[in-house]
Amino acid sequence: MLSRFLPADFDPSRPIVVIAGRGLYPVRTVAAIRRAGLPVRLIAFEGETRDDLYASFAEAERVRLHVGQVGKALKALSRFDAGYALMAGQITPKRLFHGLRPDLKAASLLFRLKRRNAETIFGALADEIEAVGARMLDARSFLDEDIADTGWMTRRSEKIEQTFIDHGLEIAREVARLDIGQGVVVRKGTVLAVEAFEGTDEMLRRAGTFKTDHMIFVKTVKPRQDYRFDVPVFGMRTLETMREAGIRTAVLEAGNVIILDKAGVLRQAEADGIQILGVAAASAAS
């Protein structure tokens, strides 16, 4: 099986276009698609997508755009004869306010939105992509080996009461339901920090300013998560930020959170004395 996240009628002969944001996420996705022997193309963004990923594609199989050039992205999908599109990797949040270069298509899309956040913007973009004939794939596709498991994924290095873990999960899921963010930091029943537009790392740094112990970082998804985009990711950079902030416990929603380079992250977590727990998704737990 190529990936449990692919649709049942997936056609392996049709090109998959990876719409690549920052970091390792799109790199690992492209590598997995190539290992599967499937045709893959790339839409990259100036100042966001890694240069080495862009360079790994032939000229005819790639395009680089400015963030906001939706019309050109849709034309590229048509030129690539895309059967599927897959969004992998974030775009720097501040680009929604600074450095955005919306073309007429993007301006029209933004004008129609009553709320402007990751869900509404990328949801509208996904609809535009599917309107030109490219089916949006689950953003977890091909990364099955990097998905968080249920249970302790590392050795336990710090004793945390289940009551405090449950509290963190409750708060994180409510914050996600309200579309504020996908993560929180709690300590013994107290909420220290909530993730909002600034992202996970900045939230972890804020929590670290309290200089306290037994902090728990919880990462989850929305109750009605659209898995075509905005899937939560945990990687080496987050692990490093946790270490710097003095946070020694991470609780991740199993089956939903992607641990980029999972084997490497878990090894490094154990070396850093950070414990990582996977918990069942809310629907499975209820």
Describe it for me?
This protein has 286 residues and is α/β, with parallel strands linked by helices. The chain folds into 2 domains: 16-136, Rossmann fold (3-Layer(aba) Sandwich); 147-285, Cytidine Deaminase, domain 2 (3-Layer(aba) Sandwich), CATH 3.40.140.80. Helix content is 35%, strand content 18%. A 6-stranded mixed beta sheet has the order 6-13-11-9-7-8, with helices on both faces. A 5-stranded parallel beta sheet has the order 3-2-1-4-5, with helices on both faces. Helix 7 runs parallel beside helix 8 (236-245). The chain is globular.
Shape: globular
Distance between the termini: 29 Å
Order of helices and strands: EHEHEHEHHEEHEEHEEHEEHEH
* Domain tally: 2
Write the layout of secondary structure elements.
Layout: E1 16-20, H1 24-35, E2 40-45, H2 51-55, E3 62-65, H3 70-79, E4 84-88, H4 104-112, H5 118-131, E5 135-136, E6 151-152, H6 162-177, E7 183-187, E8 190-194, H7 200-208, E9 216-219, E10 233-234, H8 236-245, E11 249-253, E12 258-259, H9 262-272, E13 275-279, H10 282-285
Parallel strand pairs: 1-2, 1-4, 2-3, 4-5, 9-11, 10-12, 11-13
Antiparallel strand pairs: 6-13, 7-8, 7-9
Helix pairs in contact: 7-8
